[in-house]
Amino acid sequence: MLLHESNLIHIGYLLVAWCVIVLYVNRTTANRFRTTLRLLQIIPVMFAIDLILGFTLIDHLYDNQASASWMSKSIIIYPPMFIGAVWFMFRSRRQQKND
Which of 16, 34, 54, 68 could pair with 30 as two cysteines, CB 3.0-4.6 Å apart? Predict the structure, then answer.
C-alpha cells in the first residue's frame, strides 16, 4: 500500500535528510572537492540511521514486511540522493558565482 504509515514516516525522514544536505551545502565555504568528500561521509551516516530506524522502529511497530520494504526503499533512494546532492552543490555554487 502506497500510503502506509511507514511510508509516510520514511518520506518524512528523507525530507529531513535532504534538508540537512541542503543546509550543509548552502553554509559550507569549502571547495567542491572537499564538499563532495564530506557528502560522502554525511550520506552514509544518514543511510545507516535510516536502516537502523527501519530495522528497529518499523519492525517493532508494524511487521517484517514493512521493515523489509523500508530497507529496500532506502537502498534504492540513497545513491540517487547523493547524485542529487552533488548536482545541487554544483548548481548552487554556479549561482553564487553569477550573483
Answer: 34
Q: In Å, what is the CA distance from 78 to each residue of 14, 30, 62, 91?
A: 9, 23, 23, 20
Tell me how far the alpha carbon of residue 6 is from its chain's centroid: 16
Alpha helices by DSSP H, listed for 1-99, are 5-27, 32-53, 59-61, 64-98
Task: Please state the pTM of the whole predicted model.
Answer: 0.76
pLDDT digits (tens, 9 = 90+) for 2-44: 567 878 888 888 899 899 888 888 888 888 888 888 888 988 9
Whether 74 contacts 67, CB under 8 Å: no
Cβ partners under 8 Å of residue 71, min gap 6 = 51, 54, 55
